[in-house]
Amino acid sequence: MTERTFETERAPAPPAPEAERRPPAREAERRPPGAGPGDLTRIPVGSPALRSAPAKPAAASGRGGFLQTVSSFLGGLFTHPIDTLRRLFGGEGYTDRELADYLTLLDRTGDIEGDFDSDNKARAVVARWKGARAGFELPGTRMALLMSELLAGATGGDDERAILDLLTRADDGDLRVIFQRVPVARLLKDIGGANGRRLTAWIEARFEGGLPAVRRNAVEPKGGLPPGAPVFPYDWAHFRQKFDGLHPPEQIIQELARLTPDERERAARDLIVERDTLDTKIDDLRVKAGNAPDQATRAALQDQLAALSKRELDMSIVLEDAFKEITLAETPAQFAAKAVALTPAQRAQARQALVPPVPVMGGVPVPFAKTLPGEHLSYEDKLRAAMPAVVDGYWNQMAKERQPADHGDPAKLHTLSEMEDLAKVSKDETDEVFAGHYDKALHPPLKADRPGRRASLHDLWADTQAFLTHPATSFAEKRALAKALVLYFYSADDTVGELNRKHRAVPSFSPAGGPLNDAAVAQDKVARELTTTAAQVRRLNEIDRGWDASANPATQDVNLQLFRPKGGVAADQDFLWDMFQTLIHEYLHTLAHGDYRRFAERFGPGQAQNTLIEGMDSFLDEVVWARIRPRVNDPGLRRKVEGPAYAAQPPIAVRHASRRRYSSFAEATRLVSIVGYRNVILAYFKGEIDKIGG
Which residue windows does the record flag with biased composition (Low complexity) (predicted)? Predict the structure, then answer.
């Protein structure tokens, strides 16, 4: 679009195109009834909604029974008498194969072995774990079983020291698992003398609230990853267990940092594939919850959804940090050298990744179903029935309390000059991560409009109102703006996305917006019906006027709302952090290379374009957020984001940037998993679209 002017003889230019809108915050998204929380970014580790059910304590009685012990001992005397006698008196001469079989037994039964020499095996396993011997990784469940094995029967000094080795080198998540299964009272009872005093001192230092808190089962470790924790070669099967809801992502990031660069790359590739799979499961579960036959079933599905969503968020936090580290560690030349040339198969997969997957039979995508078997309502009928509620939902969120009287009250608004300061911080933080891939001098800080001076940072409400109320603005222009918004809803709204999934609809439009297949024809028809009357158009125009933010990459302009939220200081602090995140997102839009934007525009309005523009921008703004997230309570950053007055107040729980993540983020990350992170960065910032199948 062209930059708006305010000449009296013609109308101001219309708002920014639909492809660069900022999505509503996720907690306000319309989801199927009972679909569960839309924002899990503030749920702490160990929250009741996400915490694993308390595990059954590991076996505390004798080692499998007297008869089993005697039988095993006598059998050993007959088959290998020397080894048996040595092990009876504490010898640990086991092969790796014998110990691997022992661990397999523990994993399979979830219980101790309870044999006459099982404590010897447990100590031998701990020794190999301390030495980071491949194959002897110990998740918390194994640690708890080994400790129970060592506590069964008489617990000698060697047993006590092995238990302390496990405890003092265990990470936070594993400690949570251990103390679910091994009562602290049992540890204190069975470990005495100097080792007991060492245990008590360690508990006091390692946990919030010390020993009294742990006695109350308030197990909250502090201090992060212990320096003596063993470092094992990367193994996906072990690494994925860290995302159990008990390991904070910060700790997983610490563990990743200890691996080699090649291992971190492998972990990132594995994680992005796993998250893609998890996104599909979450979508399916959300639909099941919405269609649940009763409240009890819905509640159970919501609990599953909450746990999976928390797991997905943790994976996102770890992934965005991994990509941030790759970006910061490599020079542009190193970065480009590691990009890959796509095979024909990868190019085809990259194109397919831009839209949600459809079922495949015999290697061929299952075609669009206008009407599903056993139903009489067509896709078009359902879309027509659903869209009024979609429009109403957006109007209630974006327009209801953003009317002329609201905008006319200075007490209800922030100022553009405040947003200019915030925009500079957003630019600086983004440049710190990605400026190696563009010339930041060509992207100057955003400047707020001033009376009589048009700049690059605008009041979106005021600009849209000027366009809508200008005498030269025709109804046809207002209607075109309204229809573009409806087409945007089609590609960004969950309700329509679910309808598309059920009917295997992949609407395709020409660059000019003309429908190219049956699904697009249906969408275009309903869009025209929704923009027929003046009342319909006005309602959609008011949503556009109240939209949170947008950007125009061609002119490097950004448009945003200035409305203060209700709810007092804490709500306004949250608004400013949200606007900070939003301005990162919008600034990233202005950094997209012209060739990249033109490639996206070839697909016309629809899902593929939304993936390349909004989904990819969401992906990138979360990579920037990885550098900010650990610093949200830093006083200096708080003053820049919240201002001096609010920064003097207690800090709020700042939510993750995923709060406004576009649903097409899933397709964007699928594209990354196919072509590679570096290819995506070179395409987005340098226009090398061949790197993503262009």
Answer: 47-61
Q: Which of 627, 629, 558 has its CA nearest to residue 587? A: 558
Residue 5 confidence (pLDDT) above 50: no
Q: How far apart are the C-alpha atoms of 165 and 126, rounded to whole Å?
A: 8
What residues pair up with 557 in beta bridges, in sequence order?
A: 552
For residue 91, the model assigns a pLDDT of: 52
d(CA 357, CA 53): 34
Distance between CA atoms of residues 14 and 480, nearest Å: 10
Which two three-digit tokens encode residue 620? 């990138």
Sheet holding 557-560, edge to edge: 457-459, 557-560, 549-552
- Residues 100 and 121: beta-carbon distance below 8 Å: no
- Contact between 620 and 434 (Cβ < 8 Å): yes
Cα angle for residues 25, 671, 655 (degrees, 5° grid)? 25
Packed helices 261-290 and 249-257: angle between N→C axes, nearest 10 degrees: 160
Cα separation, 552 vs 18, whole angstroms = 10
Residues 309 and 36 sit within 8 Å (Cβ to Cβ):
yes
Give the Cα-Cα-Cα angle 195, 199, 200 (nearest 5 degrees). Answer: 120
540-581 pLDDT tens trace: 999 999 999 999 988 999 999 999 999 999 999 999 999 999
**Residue 237: how many other CB atoms lie within 10 Å:** 8
Q: Smallest Cα–Cα separation from 539: which of 483, 582, 585, 587?
A: 483
Residues 6+ apart with CB under 8 A from 245: 45, 50, 51, 52, 307, 310, 311, 314
Split at pLDDT 50, 70, 90, the class of 379 is very high
CA angle 314, 207, 256 (to 5 degrees): 35
**DSSP alpha helices (H): ranges in 359-459?**
379-398, 404-407, 416-434
Average pLDDT over residues 605-610: 91
pLDDT in tens, 483-498: 999 999 998 888 998 8
